[in-house]
């Protein structure tokens, strides 16, 4: 066995559940995982080569084929596409002589497309050798390739300063700007570092901590909205040799970047939240699952943890509390949107493909390594700290009756001030658009592609009969109300992504197609519904956009949208939402394409329809008249 591989395996005590970390180290050392390495890793960990292979093949940032010395992962999220993705892609290809998806013959440059990297407020963006390059233009893309060919380091390729105007720590060495536009209870500067651990936990029992969080009605901020206090209470009662707190920092929902900002500028409050959750539930192990795209924060975050250990805020007898032993490690993801789902994340943390588990059992009963596991979002943990400091009643004074507190919105798209807005629940979409300086708005995507595409057209005035004509798919909001809709948990929940589209945007051809591509790319493939239907729906959409749609096609889309709801996890269950939501709120666009609303397509072109199939079998379509 190669000495290097042996030392990597030894570093992780040949623990197969640390396969993701092992593969990261192999990728860092060799740039790919060769067949020989797969064999050595499999032997060393006593798992099959197939198991190693299936983990490698699942994640965007692992490869069993050599990658380039410089690897450019260009982000194709919708806002990136709206700001010149296509031109930048062309420049990268032309200047490097490499096509996307490949490495040049000299091994210098690899070009890849990747889903949202959490930079919607400053895209188009790309990751080049783990470093983020924002606000790309064709000129900048050309300069990057030129610099690479001249042998410049990635650091030398950077064209903007280190977090200009923000508090980015030098260790992050980043050009990212955090664009915090509005602060409230969470982002206020009155937070005193680790005050709760030092002064409050020592005087209050775990039950008292849970009670405050329960009374505040804090709900998970990742989008699902489960009551946090209840989750902590369940977790504290589950038997197990160990109990785990996971902080979910795998925000992959296109358009969301709030966790990026919290972790960059408020990481201490998140770690403090994890320690509080551990105290409340008697957990002894903590893991922050950091999406690979945020690897630039890793060194900084580890430094924060080391500082906490030095100050007895992690480790044994934390803050002098006898037998309160808890520590946190950071688990780096490897690029898979579905790992934001808590059970998929746990699979990934155990070194496997990030495929969601069947539930029950829920993670709180049997999660990471089969121990009771409490998974909380970054924003949720930070909110809990503020609640314990100021009390449940104080927290309840923010927001509305059924949606308490504040919400961090990640606002991007067609507006003058993209960025993070901490707003009270109950704010209307109209107000958010005004804050963000958005004009000439046609649509707003609330909650990312799996959320709702809101039409700014006020349809309150439509008659009930007219509204009833609009099919309302189950699981989606009962009726589109208006542009004045207020953000709240029960009616319009959101993980925080708000993407604005002006009237110039092509809602079907540009927006909905992009979102469907995202779901097609990110399905883990376990369920046939989620694996196949988004692709089939996209083909149907293309047919409609191309002017070959008939009345039944819209009904087919709606029916398939119902079928896909039986998929195992939230990704599949919501994968049809871009289509369903646009039919619900932009039906006129479909009907414009299906002009005659005929029952059959009288312009069907057989040659065109079978050309793809013929290309696979290497045959030319022979027209019977030729
Ligand atoms: Fe995987 Fe999709 Fe099924 Fe979820 S719904 S388990 S992502 S195939």
Oligomeric assembly: single chain
Structural class of the secondary structure composition? alpha/beta
Sum up the overall morphology in one term.
globular
DSSP, total strands? 15
Kindly describe this structure:
Helix 10 (206-216) packs antiparallel against helix 11, helix 10 (206-216) crosses helix 13 (267-281) and helix 22 packs across helix 24. The longest helix is centred in the last third of the chain and has 18 residues, at 528-545. This protein is an alpha/beta fold and 626 residues long. It has 26 helices and 15 strands. The site of iron/sulfur cluster (SF4) has 15 residues, from helix 21 and helix 23.
Characteristics:
626 residues, alpha/beta, six-stranded mixed beta sheet, five-stranded mixed beta sheet, 26 helices, globular, binds iron/sulfur cluster
Helix and strand topology:
Blueprint: H1 3-11, H2 19-30, H3 35-45, H4 49-58, E1 70-75, H5 78-82, H6 85-96, E2 102-103, E3 109-114, E4 126-128, E5 131-133, H7 138-149, H8 154-157, E6 180-182, H9 195-200, H10 206-216, H11 228-237, E7 244-249, H12 258-265, H13 267-281, E8 285-290, H14 298-310, E9 327-332, H15 342-349, E10 373-377, H16 378-390, H17 392-396, E11 406-413, E12 419-424, H18 429-435, E13 441-446, E14 452-455, H19 464-468, E15 497-502, H20 507-522, H21 528-545, H22 551-563, H23 570-574, H24 577-585, H25 587-593, H26 606-617
Parallel strand pairs: 1-3, 6-12, 7-8, 7-10, 8-9, 11-15
Antiparallel strand pairs: 1-4, 2-3, 4-5, 11-12, 13-14, 13-15
Helix pairs in contact: 3-4, 6-7, 10-11, 10-13, 13-16, 20-21, 21-22, 22-24, 24-25
Bound molecules: iron/sulfur cluster.
